[in-house]
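Supplementary Methods, section 5.1.

A reviewer requested that the exact input to the structure prediction be made available. We therefore reproduce it here, unchanged from the version used in the analyses.
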Amino acid sequence: MPDILHRISIDAAPQRVHDLIASTDGIGRWWTGCPAGGEHTIGSSFSISFGKAEAPAAVMEVVADTPEQVVWRVTDGPDVWIDTQITFALRPSGQGGTTLLFTHAGWRQADEFMSGCSTNWGAYLTSLKTGAESGAFAAYPAGEISRWG
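The structure derived from this sequence is encoded token-by-token as follows.
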């Protein structure tokens, strides 16, 4: 099964990056443009929405949440996302920085939609980077590069 992989160097402490990934408010700041619904605790689920959509775009179960790694399993959303796993692995680097290894794993096939998602993940991870470093986030819709529908 193909995976989406990204490696990002961030000039911010791992705890700062973790806090933005592992909180519903943080997710809204760097990714969706609005806070996620639900709770970000192991075994719980949260939903994400983009813009003024009435229904959530996706629902994720929090599988792991440690200072070194955050893992989500997609339980609802686009058919090709269902049962995929999103992992943020964090490790200290340089002088107080963070290396983020991102994986969106378990895609059924590499296709045009997966390619567009990879492009958008790169943009949103850049939003996470600049936001963690300077507070200047570029969440949806500013961070969206590949549009669908």
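Residues 4-134 form a domain with the Alpha-D-Glucose-1,6-Bisphosphate; Chain A, domain 4 fold (CATH 3.30.530.20). These observations are discussed further in the main text.
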